[in-house]
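Open question from group meeting: does this chain pack into something compact, or does most of it stay loose? Before anyone orders reagents, we agreed to write out a predicted structure and look at it together. Recording both the input and the output here so the notebook holds the full record.
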Amino acid sequence: MFVQSHGPFVHYQRTVTLGDEGATQVIRYRLRLPWFGWLYGPFVRRALKHRPTPDRPAGLQPWWAPGDRLDQRQVLVLGLLAAASMCSTFTNTIFTQFAHKATDAFGVGGTGQGVAGAIVRAGVVIVLPFAFRADHIGRRRVMRWLVVAAPVVCSLGALAPNFPILVVTQTIGRPLGLALDLLIAVVAAEEVPRNSRAYVVSVIAMAGGIGAGLCVWMLPLAGLGTWGWRIPFAATLIWLAVAVSIRRHLPETVRFVAVHAEAPRLRTPRLSTISLIAFLTNLFLAPASFFQNRFLEQERGYSNLGVTLFTVFTAMPSGIGLLIGGALADRHGRRGIGAAGILVGALLIQSSFMIAGAPMWGTALLGGICLGIAVPALMVYRTELFPTGNRGRAGGIVTTSSLLGGSIGLVVTGQFLDRGHSYGSVLGVLSLTQIIVALLIIRRLPESAHRELEELNPEDLNPIRLAPGGAAGPVTG
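Structure tokens returned:
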């Protein structure tokens, strides 16, 4: 009989019986992966069935698995974070997807929509107190509150009697979702081994894509009447089911428990570079995303269903890019992958606003995949380059910078569109900023792949190795 010495299973037992006709093995195991066990279950069963052989030595991870072998606590945390990511992206996406319908219902123009989007993003200042507090009292305690507050506040938009009140509810609710998203990234970085951080970011981002996708699939509901756009806002309450799971089972991170001291001084050059990259990236991506639905309806004559199909077809496959980007960033490094992905992706997305028909769909599809490749490399930098004592604070500042860039991009885009400029020309100018982003990544950021957080941030005391040697040993008897 063989049992697990280190690995992802809560229970593992392999029994081998020798008989006249050869050996028979029976494997019993239990994998505690909340919310996504149904998705990974078939892959796990196949991996256990095809055990290590001379052609596939022990310790070599399957293609779908992270670079390190996670333990049962890390698998539990990963499942909870992925579920929380669905909640955060839904609350962050809903105003973007349905603002144009609300503006139509309340008689608001393009400038009003752009200003409203900027105001909602300006609410990012609400993120900072939660980020700072998480560095003092812990990530778990703050997340337990945010995972309830974000969907509840966003759902109040369904009751808004006018557009300004809708904007107020989302100006509060959306930043709560952003704060939750920020702490998801922090917990992931502090819980995951060094060779798997980008992989985990990609998995969490894919789960977040499911949350955003659910929001997109609700677009046809807006066609039920002038009140149809209210239904998705009310539907944010479904994420309270995830809140119950998070509140019951999410542990505090091992690094916060081990390194609970006065926050060290932030490294200004690192923080400035990451913040500038976030600012410039969102200066283009925010208006490209926010005005896409209005562009498809006004310029291409798409119906609600047409907009939904376009968004799903071109955005959902970006999950392929996330998987590829996570694997490449962990194996070959962050900088080249991040710079190339953001540059090519921005060019393709901007091109989709200048053409029609199948080429528009194709460029949007490829652009989403390229941006997906860049996401794990760029997002993991936001947590890797700062010590435990102020990792939340740094993340809050970077998030604020990102939303500030998005707000400026929305206001500028809305004003130029109302003056008669085309979507392609306005976004074409904004897309040039991504050249600066690529240069900053290559010239100013260190390579962080395969390095412990304590190596990148020597300010931290009591260094922790979550997976000595980069991976745990094989299952032994």
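Observations to bring back to the group:
The chain has two domains: 2-31, 72-448.
The mean pLDDT is 86.
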